[in-house]
Amino acid sequence: MLMSNKTVRLVKSTTTVELPIIATRPAIDPSPTMADALAVDCVALIFPTGKLMVSLECGDEIILGRLHPSNKIQPQVDLTEFGGGLHGASRLHAALRHDDDQWWIEDLDSSNGTWVDGERLAPYCPCRLNAKSKVMLANLEVEIILPAEGHKSLAA
Q1: What CATH number belongs to 7-150?
Q2: Could you tell me the strand order of the sheet in which 132-137 lies?
Q3: Across the chain, how many H-helices and E-strands are there?
Q4: pLDDT in tens, 128-152
Q5: Domain ranges of the chain
Q6: Is the pTM of this model over 0.90?
Q7: pLDDT tens, 23-33?
Q8: Phi/psi at 36 (nearest 5 deg)?
Q9: Of 99, 43, 41, 88, which Cα lies nearest the Cα of 65?
């Protein structure tokens, strides 16, 4: 499901911002510290040109892609800031989801594909992420670091 009435919390080094899941462009601090990763349900996305922390409650999902005015649905994480346009990322490239204390990534039928730890994902087939996963969104490399086991949410 690409749209929801739930909210996503993007964690900055000093504040947490709550945005509707259909927000057009979240304000993201591209230079959080790894200490932010101690937050419950907070995942680190590390790109060659910067990093950000995203907090997702159990059952929530965000879309990774490129903002474009003609899209009815806009991604919550704009990959353009990290070179996504230059590296072939699609407008709606992939979804990152947190379910039942597990983290998943799903290719949204992107033009140039999604790889997790060297394996290409089939469109719309979720792939469970490891504690530390190397993900390629087309030719854009991102390392995804999940929260420590002891800091996962107890919500079910």
Answers
A1: 2.60.200.20
A2: 16-20, 7-11, 50-55, 42-47, 140-145, 132-137, 114-116, 119-120
A3: 0, 13
A4: 999 999 999 999 999 999 987 534 4
A5: 7-150
A6: no
A7: 334 334 455 45
A8: -65, -25
A9: 88
Asked whether residue 10 carries a pLDDT value surpassing 60, the answer given is: no
Nearest in space to 25 (alpha carbons), one of 12, 40, 15, 10: 10
Question: Between β-strands 77-78 and 61-65, what pairing exists: parallel, antiparallel or unpaired?
Answer: parallel
Token couple for 100: 């039942």
Q: Which pair of structure tokens corresponds to residue 113?
A: 């594909």
Q: How is the beta sheet containing 94-99 ordered, strand by strand?
A: 77-78, 61-65, 94-99, 102-107, 127-128
- Which residue, chain included where needed, has tokens 């993007």? 10
Contact 28, 52 (CB under 8 A): yes
CA dihedral 126, 127, 132, 138 (to 10 degrees): -80
Six token digits for residue 140: 């854009």
Decide: 103 and 62 in contact? Cβ < 8 Å: no
DSSP 83-152: TTTTTT--TT-EEEEEETTEEEEEE-S-SS-EEETTEEPPTT--EE--SEEEEEETTEEEEEEPPPGGGS
CA gap 130, 147 in Å, rounded: 10
